[in-house]
Amino acid sequence: MQAEPSPLAAATWALIVVYAIAVLTIVVRGARRTRSMDDYAIGSLLFSPVAVGLSLAASMTSAATFIINPGFVALYGLSAVLSMAVAIPLASLCSLVVLTKGFRRHGTTVKALSMAQWMETRYGSRPYGIFFGVLSLLLITFVVLICVGLTKVLSAALGVGELPVLAGLVVFVFGYMMFGGANSMVYTNTLQALLMLVIAVILLGSGYEHFREGVSGFMDRLAAIDPKLIGTTNTDSFLFRDHFEVFGAALIVGVAIICQPHILTKSLLLKSDRDVNRYLITGCTVQFIFFAVVFAGLYARLAFPDLSVAGQPLPMDNIVSAYVVSEFPVIIGLIVVLGLISAGLSTLESLIQSMSTTVTNDIIKPLASPRLGLDRPENFRVVLLINRAVIVLLALAAFGLSWQQLVDPKLSVSIFAQNGVYAYFSAAFVPILMGMFLRDVPLMAPVAASLTAVTVHFSMYYGRLPLPFTLADGENPGVAAAVAIVSSVVVGFGVYLLGRGGRAPAMLNRAGGSAR
To answer: Which of 38, 56, 234, 451 has CA atoms 20 to 30 A from the CA of 380?
Structure first.
């Protein structure tokens, strides 16, 4: 639904101009320091661990957290809150702390620029690295989610149709990401994280009047709309039907969700191991606040009990946009819109940077270097030009897929994104785990784990395969991913033990060298 022209629209136009100028200024500064693919991927500047921690939190928090996921909460209530704001955050942040140091230890030793390069160097297999480079293309689904979420918010706030908003968004963001890379991204992400903290406080506090009669009164108001909104499960949803979907699958997915290139590789921006703890404390604290924002979806449901505006039904992905436009005065609404833009752009920048780096370094260079000599230092300008061409192609793909999801989504663009992203980190989880904590790992073990994860995930999802102990089936991408991850662990470690003749795993010590 397209918003009518309003004072908010005029103010938003002015805000976007100012915001764009600020971002471009930072990008120009970063671009002047970008002289190689190494600079583009991990930066040439000395970043504060607090700044990198804020960048991490901003990267982990996408348009899904601030724009799309509150819509699930508005539709399905407390069950969605427990899954998205309790189970997944606890699992993912604990996993982040455990995995970051091991990933960084190997990544800095070999100067890895991407997840695919980390896999290649850790297991000594270029084909395996190329495989992960190709697999990273699944992350385009996440890019689409963010583009759709931002288009929804900007279209509602500006009173402009979705197609021109989407086109302008893609041209602007992909355009400036062709130049600055990590040098500008950390600064823009830090600015965005600070804005997102402000918006998180505003959104979480926006429903304070609903608590005039305490928590029980708040729950009673939700129950008056639909008793299922206050249940720990919700059988109306194919995502939160029972406790396995709400907690079990969410915990498994949360542990593995960290295994995305724009998250784990963030630690490679740190220049010293002494910075890691401050980086993690900053990132985890801020990230936990961001996860809590989905609670605002309950406020939106109280604002729109029948999920309609002026008699028109609200699609799930439009609920937060409608809530912001209808519930906030112009000044507060403007701040909220700015925060929502920041939430989307922060992750979008990280994804563009990591995907383009992966395609350039881990697919094109290995395949073309024997003929074109792209590994030679004097050809770095050619490599940067190739990287920019890759970004253009990613932009075209993102635009086409985003428009398709705007026109014909399955409930939400989030389902489309989860299907691709969950398949990726399901395939990456066991190889990363083995690479960090085990030595003498036969290549067949991580390869078998990755292939099992991808096969099981897509078989579960497209076959909608049921599980015997739960109402859940593969239609829920989280369930498909959870089963894929467990299957990958069983197969990967099974192959590893067989390769060692059934002997106990040989663990790496902190230095990453000898067995305990």
So the answer is: 56
